[in-house]
Amino acid sequence: MIRTLPLTCSRCGKVFTAQDHLYYQDDFTAQSFKDIKLVCDDCIREWKEKWQIDHAEFHEENYVLTVTITLKDGTVYKNMDCTPMEDTESVVTGEDIPPEAQHTLYEYYVTFAQKRESQQIKDCFFTKEAEGKMSADITTVGGERYDKLVFYVEDGYLKTEQDVPDYVMDGLVIAYKSYLAQEEMLSTASQPAPRMPQRKPMPESQWNTGEGYGSGNTTGGFGRHNRNPFGGF
Ligand SMILES: [Zn+2]
């Protein structure tokens, strides 16, 4: 059966002519060829012209990367989920973006990633101060230094006496947690080995005293009924 497919743009609704290729919108719900969403050259041109990026700001929280894009025409796309693709040097977002704009976005991403890298904490040394306070000497990868940064924990939150950027605070919290964990480990290691548990009868309710463990233990034992499933001591 031969059918015809009119070249009608799915965006502007105009009938158009085509040269050597057609633009169409990806659509996984399309059931048959006639459902294909064609896009005319004019709409493609308009779309490419629209996607002139004026500014892009990346943000990462809990390993989720988002980007807020401002176009030259003033349109703002806020906090879009996005994925940088190193092999194609582009950034893919939920919005349809022309390849040229995806590349531009990638340049913004590289700048963001470099800055983020430089803000990582390279060194952090702790000193115990008076009144239960601590101080930290911090150096970032980018060479920023924070000397004798006094901090303390209050109501479960780490607080510094001077204002520091968020990335320093985040790094400090992580470093201090691992410092505390290490302290704990060292103090446990330096304690004498735990004594053997005393043979104190356990409350009966904690043990299975039902039948069904064979003949039970009749040679001495643990507990009144000598039916300790773990055998006698
Ligand atoms: Zn069109």
Question: Can you walk through the features of this model?
Answer:
- The chain is an alpha+beta fold.
- Strands 3-4-5-6 form a 4-stranded antiparallel β-sheet. Strands 7-8-9-10 form a 4-stranded antiparallel β-sheet, with helices on one face. It has a two-stranded antiparallel sheet with strand order 1-2.
- The chain has helices spanning 41-50, 99-118, 166-190, and strands at 23-25, 37-39, 53-61, 64-71, 76-85, 90-93, 121-128, 134-140, 145-154, 157-160.
- It starts with 22 loop residues before the first strand and ends in a 43-residue tail after the last helix.
- It contains 3 helices and 10 strands, in the order E-E-H-E-E-E-E-H-E-E-E-E-H.
- It is 24% helix and 28% strand.
- The relative contact order is 0.06.
- Mean pLDDT is 85; it is low at 209-233.
- It has 3 domains: 1-49, no CATH class; 51-118, no CATH class; 121-187, no CATH class.
- Residues 9, 11-12, 14, 39-40, 42-43 line the site of zinc ion.
- Zinc ion is lined by residues 9, 11-12, 14, 39-40, 42-43.
Structural class: alpha+beta
Overall outline: elongated
Give the DSSP E fraction (strand runs of 2 or more residues): 25-35%
Q: What molecules are bound to this protein?
A: zinc ion
How many domains would you count in the coordinates? 3
Mean pLDDT: 85
Our Rg estimate from Cα atoms comes to 33 Å
- How many strands? 10
For the largest beta-sheet, the strand count, sense and barrel status come to:
4 strands, antiparallel
N to C succession of SSEs: EEHEEEEHEEEEH
Provide the spatial order of strands within the biggest beta sheet.
Answer: 3-4-5-6
Alpha carbon gap, first and last residue = 88 Å
> Helix count, per DSSP?
3
Please mark out the parts with pLDDT under 50 across 5 or more consecutive residues, or reply none. 209-233
Helical content band: 10-25%
